[in-house]
Amino acid sequence: MEGCVGLVGSAHNELPSGVLDVPLPLDKLSSQCGSQNCSRLNEQGTKIVVVSTGSFNPPTYMHLRMFELAKDALLSEGYDFLGGYMSPVNDSYGKQNLVLAEHRIEMCKVASSTSSFIMVDPWEARQPTYQRTLYVLDRVQDALNNTFTSEKVKVMLLCGADLLESFITPGVWIPEQVQAIFEIYGVICICRGGQDTRNVIFENDLLYNNKKNIKVVDEQIANDISSTKVRRNLERGLSVKYLIPDEVIKYIKEHYLYTHIKECTNTKFG
Ligand SMILES: Nc1ncnc2c1ncn2[C@@H]1O[C@H](COP(=O)(O)OP(=O)(O)OP(=O)(O)O)[C@@H](O)[C@H]1O
Ligand SMILES: NC(=O)c1ccc[n+]([C@@H]2O[C@H](COP(=O)(O)O)[C@@H](O)[C@H]2O)c1
Prior knowledge:
Elements: E1 4-5, E2 24-25, E3 47-54, H1 61-76, E4 80-88, H2 101-112, E5 118-120, H3 123-126, H4 133-148, E6 153-160, H5 161-166, H6 175-185, E7 187-190, H7 197-203, H8 205-209, E8 214-217, H9 227-235, H10 246-254, H11 261-266
Parallel strand pairs: 3-4, 3-6, 4-5, 6-7, 7-8
Antiparallel strand pairs: 1-2
Helix pairs in contact: 2-10
Bound molecules: adenosine-5'-triphosphate and beta-nicotinamide ribose monophosphate.
């Protein structure tokens, strides 16, 4: 497939055996420095690619906004922002009401089709088993640095404040992997729903000790869209226009998603 590279090993951890080779799309990666808010690249001019992991069940305008906020924040700090990936979670994640991965991949693709720099990485969703976020970041980092460019590209995890807070919820993440995510990749965290993310970081030792690896981006224009709220409207037959892209609404209607949650999650895609 043109503009794609396959999986090429892991930076520092062995990937679990049995992983499928799924190409990483590269077609939209390019310096965004020509756009607004790019003052001057910093000394290193570090090239950055962001990866957002999540259910995207379905993708909303806020999921797309997160990439715009990250782009503005990174360019204004002198980094060279190249683009980003939505990585829908594997079906084995087992979250309630998760529609099949192939639907979520397609919805992310149509949602990001109007963006010049947001792409979808289907690797995580297409693996036979659940893949932890650290491995998703490893896969993107390795694929980019081995084939995309001879210059090193830094990959960062893009997330909302709730995901950052889940790092410190006992039993959800493996502490060593959280530490590796901070040290090797770093996190761009978009504030959400009026939560005082800086205070959360201050009050927790793990987050505080890693604060130099967490970029907190303020939500200047509050937008509390969530997939849960969108699904609720769909289940009740209410409008979701202007909450999610029209193309996603069309896809949901064509595939009868979210109106009968049980059928959607158990029906074979296609
Ligand atoms: N309104 C928002 N503000 C900031 N971050 C958000 C927002 N909505 C989603 N995110 C972030 O997007 C990523 C993927 O989110 P996810 O697919 O879990 O969406 P969600 O809307 O939180 O889903 P759900 O409502 O199904 O739990 C996560 O890092 C999440 O924190
Ligand atoms: N240990 C881990 O790597 C770990 C733990 C919990 C959630 N996650 C990820 O965080 C995201 C959470 O998404 P939701 O907010 O939709 O549940 C998913 O992409 C999931 O894979 C990763």
